[in-house]
Amino acid sequence: MEKTATLIKPEAMIFDMDGTLFQTETLLLPAYHKLFDILREEGHYEGETPDEELMLSCLGMLLPDIWKKVLPSGTPEAHRRADELLLQLELEGLENEAAVLYPGVKETLEELHRRGVRLFVASNGLEHYVKGIAEARGIMPLFEGIYSAGEHQTSTKVDLVKLLLDQHDIGHAWMVGDRSSDVEAGKENGQTVIGCHYAGFGADQELKGADVVIHSFSQLLRLHDQAE
């Protein structure tokens, strides 16, 4: 655990979903390969499936930005079809027990909830995907609100987190996430940022600017204990 600041106990914690709460590759990669099989069958794509590491490197981005990198030569129709297929295949994949949360996530969230911390999700994903994970893995009742770019049509996570803070009248929160967009969303909104460095999707500088970097989700409880 790497600390660069003395922490103040938060009234709320706001979590990213992919790479923070949810071990995304356990759901995404099987869906990703099926998606390209269908795109080829339907004539939307030719050639080999792009390297799955390219898709993993895009986690945390908005879907239109993901397809610009993964399907750069794809037509607008192909991108729309990829949107539909990815959501469909991932929701189907949630029925598979191999698609899992990170170790300690459920237990840690339950303890934070017991301590009276208000819990939220802010994700750049689609509404049904983000809420589907929370429902399927039994953590939905722990959250006061689940915010997604897909539902609120925000163009950046900064805007999504601002909306969440305003709507719930939150003054001091910890933004918890694994990507630079999470750091930016927290800092631009004047909040503390806890960077999660266990997913391994981002570059070395991904969490630059975070107040603390943790290497397992359960370390949040120790941070909460130590906060003033």
Automatic annotation (TrEMBL):
One of its GO terms (molecular function) is phosphoglycolate phosphatase activity. Gene3D superfamilies: HAD superfamily/HAD-like, Putative phosphatase, domain 2. GO terms for cellular component: cytosol. Pfam families: HAD_2. Keywords: Hydrolase. GO terms for biological process: DNA repair. SUPFAM superfamilies: HAD-like (SSF56784). InterPro entries: HAD-like_hydrolase_sf (IPR050155), HAD-like_sf (IPR036412), HAD_2 (IPR041492), HAD_sf (IPR023214), PGP-like_dom2 (IPR023198). This is Haloacid dehalogenase domain protein hydrolase. It comes from Paenibacillus lactis 154.
